[in-house]
Structure to design on (74 residues):
């Protein structure tokens, strides 16, 4: 399943056969630029830099959430 985002918000989703994707992004969390024509998935391009950035951002959020309240700087 591909979740489509616009301006950081999920706006749609597509069920896509994984064999239609390039090999590199065939994992959870991969960022892609896709082409859709007449409501149908056409092609996808893997965005490794965006994938890495999102992964790091998620890890940072997780670390902040796991910090004990007493250890936080208020």
């Amino acid at each position: 399943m591909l979740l489509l985002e616009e301006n950081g918000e999920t706006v749609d989703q597509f069920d896509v056969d994984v064999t239609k994707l390039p090999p590199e992004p065939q994992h959870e969390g991969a960022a892609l630029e896709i082409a859709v024509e007449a409501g149908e998935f056409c092609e996808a391009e893997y965005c490794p830099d965006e994938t890495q950035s999102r992964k790091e951002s998620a890890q940072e959020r997780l670390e902040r959430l796991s910090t004990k309240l007493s250890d936080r700087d208020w």
Remarks:
- The longest helix spans residues 48-66.
- Helices lie at 48-66.
- The chain has a mean pLDDT of 87.
- The CA atoms of residues 33 and 45 lie 5 Å apart.
